[in-house]
Amino acid sequence: MKMKPGISRRILPALRRRWLLLATLFGMVVASTAHATTLTIGVPNNNDQIELKKLSSEFEKANPDIKLNWLILEENVLRQRLTTDITTNSGQFDVLMIGLYEAPLWAKRGWLVPLNNLPADYDTNDLFKTVRDGLSYGGTLYALPFNAESSMTFYRKDLFAAKGLTMPSQPTYAQIAQLADKLTDKANGVYGICLRGKAGWGENMAYVGTLVNTFGGRWFDEKWQPQITSPEWKSAIDFYVDLMKRDGPPGASSNGFNENLSLMTSGKCAIWVDATSAAGILYNPKESSVSDKVGFAPAPVQATRNGSQWLWSWAFAVPKTSRSQDAAKKFIEWATSKQYIRMVGSDIGWASLPPGTRLSTYQIAEYKQAAPFAGFVQKAIETADPTHPTAKPVPYTGIQFVAIPEFQSFGAMVGQSIAGALAGQLTVDQALQAGQSATERAMRQAGYLK
Fold first, then answer.
1. Which of 1, 357, 432, 433 has the maximum number of C-beta atoms within 10 A of its C-beta?
2. Which domains are delineated in the chain?
3. Mean pLDDT score across all residues of the chain
4. Edge-to-edge strands, sheet with 37-44
5. Cβ distance 294 to 266 under 8 Å?
6. Nearest to 61, CA basis, from 325, 343, 274, 279
7. How far apart are CA 426 and CA 241, in angstroms?
8. pTM of this prediction?
9. In the chain, which stretches have pLDDT less than 70?
């Protein structure tokens, strides 16, 4: 059909204008995409971090020039990937989630960007001092805390009541074992106690380190001689393996924090000793089937209180190899801000706020009402003392870790040996001897021993 000349003259200019507008808009979209900064972020697959990924769409909306690429990994795998990346200067990550162990060591080596020009409204004085100090080197912050924790004892009040049992205000490990024996009901899928068994310096050894401490043990004597075959280690690991074989769940040597959290929230554990950060999940009815049945007490002690509760923080750092340092700092300031903490409360419930980082969190009325454990956790974090982790003198700091670069290697090897004993592949004596040999070898290679 032939178009009439008059219509052609009216329509064609309009079409040209429309096409020019579309082309301009398309060019703007292409230009915007081309200029967007992509941040690659490595975090562990814990609940708080998964919630962060969910809420991070709000950050992207407010910052359309920044895109977030998430790598969420199992804790041991994450540590291996981040350590490899930072030590080889690969530059694959713009934001690292590390902790109190790595932050000062990596800062000392010049691998991290100092965080000394934070905006005034970030309010660094609001950060818990023990956590802030642990993430600093030479008086400068090198990582911003996302959450922080000590350790504590969780238990099922209903199961205790049914058996006529009472949790002591400060339980000993001997008392915990007696209680677990009475509460175990394997026929109905209830285990007297759940403890970490998965190998890893930050998995089973985070818990085992505190167990050894309170049994009177230490990693090294004053001359850096490993003490893993000492009577205190032997007593602690014998206790742990025997207790878990009697009253623990099957396959315990594969259970880390997340696996035990799942067992506890589904009602399968009578007692669980682990991170205070689990409290927010256990008490949240949206996430826990036993939210109205959970009680809490301090971490158990035995021969000494020294080092019986750990201190840890998952924190965000920016590696020097990042080519997008300003954008990375903008993101980590948002993810660790007062405003973000309140966003979590509005989204999944006030009991589940990222804990242990800011004093102001513990002044939020909704949090205090939803989290009966809040004051207890605050005190546990503020009183944990990494400078005096053991009853006997030691040349190192750190409660559930030894704050030297070599620990990451020998701590993992000792963790594998302990997991082997828990799985029945090694005797306790064999596991301790293997750990002793591996640690001596590592310390000799590093020059601590001759």
1. 357
2. 37-149+312-370 (3.40.190.10), 151-310+387-445 (3.40.190.10)
3. 93
4. 66-73, 37-44, 95-98, 312-317, 144-149
5. no
6. 343
7. 11
8. 0.91
9. 1-35
